[in-house]
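Lecture notes, part 5. Sequence design as translation. It can be helpful to think of inverse folding as translation between two languages: the language of shapes and the language of residues. The source text, in structure tokens, appears below.
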């Protein structure tokens, strides 16, 4: 009688293990795009505390064994409200694959943009830097230094508008930049 009970217990344990193995393999194969994005954001929040982070693109891919994974392109901006924000694009593979992902792509660093070749301002961080470092924006650079102003850039489609403001000043500046790097307009505006 005790032998039958032990045999029954062993069979039940084996069936439970088989069901668990199937469940684990089901979840590991059925990778979801939302899982990939959530894990990337979680990892970035730990690695870059205080930075402005986000997922730019998620592409479904298949490895050589035909298993689905996602290539996730994320952005990290440190010092978003400073005159010299640093922006990088970081690539992840989820689940992790047996090859090295692309190295991080540095978009802005060292408060410089458009230092060689054709100038294209694709990102707000580039517009923020250009709005006080390009020729014709010297008054804005002086204002930032004098009042510790904060900047923000908005995409207008074919141009950027950057606003520099400080609670300690009675005026602020707006700078309009063409996406090709041209300074279109620098305006000093009195506060009401």
């Amino acid at each position: 009688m005790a032998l039958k009970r032990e045999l029954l217990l062993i069979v039940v344990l084996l069936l439970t293990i088989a069901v668990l193995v199937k469940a684990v393999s089901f979840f590991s194969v059925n990778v979801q795009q939302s899982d990939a994005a959530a894990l990337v954001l979680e990892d970035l929040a730990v690695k870059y505390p205080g930075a402005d982070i986000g997922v730019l693109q998620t592409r479904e891919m298949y490895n050589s064994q035909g298993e689905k994974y996602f290539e996730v392109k994320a952005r990290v901006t440190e010092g978003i409200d400073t005159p010299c924000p640093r922006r990088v694009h970081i690539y992840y593979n989820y689940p992790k694959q047996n090859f090295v992902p692309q190295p991080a792509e540095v978009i802005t660093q060292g408060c410089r943009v458009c230092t060689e070749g054709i100038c294209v301002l694709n990102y707000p961080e580039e517009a923020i830097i250009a709005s006080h470092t390009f020729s014709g924006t010297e008054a804005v650079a002086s204002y930032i230094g004098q009042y510790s102003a904060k900047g923000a850039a908005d995409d207008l489609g074919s141009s950027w508008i950057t606003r520099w403001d400080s609670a300690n000043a009675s005026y602020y500046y707006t700078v309009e930049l063409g996406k090709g790097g041209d300074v279109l307009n620098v305006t000093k505006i009195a506060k009401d």
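The translated text above is only one of many valid answers, since several sequences can fold into similar shapes. Residues 124-190 form one domain.
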